[in-house]
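Write out the 3D structure for:
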Amino acid sequence: MALISADGNIQMMFDAGIRFVFIKGSDAQEAADIETMKWLIGDRNAAQAAGIYTGIYHYAYLPNSTDVDYVIRDAKAQAQKVIWRLASLGGYSERDLPLALDLENNCVKKNRSGDCIKTMGRTLLTTWAETWLKTIEEKTGRKPMLYSYGNFLESSMIRSDLLRQYPLWLAQYGVNPADPIAQPGQKSIGCYVHSWSTANCSSQWQIWQYSSCGIASKYGVPSARVDLNVFRGTPESFLSLILGKWQPEVADLMPVNEPTSMNLISVAATDTNDPVEVNVEVFRSIGTPVVTGTVIFRPTDPTIKIKKQTAVRAATGRWELTIDGLPAGVTSGTLNYVDVSKTHADNQLQLSISLMVGPVLPSPTPTPKPTATKAPVDSCAKQIKN
């Protein structure tokens, strides 16, 4: 999906026949969003200068909540982040495709091993997507797109007349778009049934991502492989996607050091054998969640060294902070909200954490590692390599 990089040969991409690209424009996770910002402006400007149309997409993470109002609030906050990002680029230009929502993961909570232990229900997920898309359309005047794949649309969302009004950017690999009878949306037996399904077992897709295994060097991209897409329709229908401009006003620009407030939801602390778990949320001055930043605990005593702490996004503006390695007794310090982008002002709360000494646990017996090795899996084995 992110087809280019600032150090790639973008003119080579145009010469190879590429006429549009989608570039990652924002991410709901802070670390990934900061990395995204390193490339966005340069990639977009260089591509448009080479005559290539560009779109930007937002990679979504869903909130860990079953409250419909909370889910709607999170969708609006993530939409606000993308609107601010587009505003920072000057709004839509004559070579900008509509914004796109990358929605392909319904996990809302993982364990410490990184395995998903909770997912969002289909109805709530659909409500979240509808809210994000409507918010973007109302602000920018253009219908955004939704990027996903057939199995996710069928198994994780409900069919919705509202969703069907938005263009679908569909990913399905292993089917050749050069085949005149080929269609994405079909299973080996039957077809995927979702909001964009048609009676002939196809889908009402606007853009089809048919491979993630394009030969990157062929397009001047400095990586091993690249995603490839085709547009469905005539040149006139493609150009209709760029109709309507949105030029941001001063009020639409991302704020600078906007005042914030913090709310400590809960602290779970038992003994030194278990991590401390802190739940906190941070709000903008207008009462909606902050859309950037993270949280960290800082002991007042500089000699206290924390073994590890990890802030996991539970929703926009809400984090679950896990702290390992605090000593027994009371550790005083501050719970800090930090925003390196300076969109929202840093903030802090006084926090004291009390831990008992945990019982001495027996050392675990190492599990012998298997000696057999598996052959590497070629994820491109059944894909088109253009």
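The first strand starts at residue 20 and ends at 27.
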